[in-house]
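pinging the channel bc i need a second pair of eyes. not urgent but kinda urgent?? the chain im working w is below, pasted from the shared doc
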Amino acid sequence: MRRRTAVLAALPLIFAAACGTAQKSDSSGSSAAASEIKVTGKADQKPTLTFPTGKPPLTSSSKTIIEGNGDPVKEGDVLTAKVTVYNWDGKENKSPGSDYDQGKSEFVTVSPQLPKALYQALQGAKPGGRVLAVIAKDNLTEDQVSNAKQQGTDFTTSSQVLVVDVLARAPKAAQGAATDPGIKGVKIVNPGDDKAPTLTTKTDAKPPKDLVVKTVIEGKGPKVTADQTVLAHYTGKIWGTDKQFDSSWERGEPSTFALNQVVKGWSQGLTGVPVGSRVLITIPPELGYGKEGNPQGGIKGTDTLVFVVDVLGAA
């Protein structure tokens, strides 16, 4: 369900969702390799890198370029960020891609599954800040090094450099005063803090024939656009039976969805919703899985779907 931006496609190893435990690294904050790279440009602009002459290092390292403001990032946080990548080969040192070139941002989860140098760089970073990580073979498994070589990056003779501009840190849940969505047959309990809302759809009432979107908590962020990817926590149930078929809360982490790649009820229902909101969406069959339904999820072609969605970010 996760979208990979053009930058991520250029980095199949770095941001892979299950890239494995971070390997040992000589990086402990700043080190010679990272400190020798000169980075220019403001935090909200594409950075320009100047590399030292000679062969690139084959050990990983990291450093902070711009401090930023606000609370420092912690493990498990999901960041909205813009990433710029360089291949440090000691020759051309070309950049295969940057989110600034695409006019997009992306989500980065601060997790030990990231290469260790990047993981260390992001911990303690602040919104508005910029960090740099040199990713070398000591941060990758043998399989990752082999796979990268097949895709044109030889980590036995080069390293990759990531400059990450931290735009924002996503909340764990929608925050604010909750209101009753006012849909007969549906109940929501909003416990507050970072806890999951409880959705109940056990009812004899007939479901709405059209798509219905009701605000439970109104966010203060920018409105989601139809071409964006959304970071969301959600619970999905079937109208009338209270049968739950999906929940990001139970998986323990929010999910990301490109709105142009999901059912029409989601794309139409979330477009225009301010980031930070909690909304209730009822989706008729024709805007859900259609006449065929989704047998794997236990959804029939006549089922109306009900979601409570926390919109935590958009990129």
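so Residues 142-150 form the longest helix (9 residues). and The helical segments are 6-10, 32-35, 99-102, 116-122, 142-150, 248-251, 264-270. — does that match what u expected or am i reading it wrong
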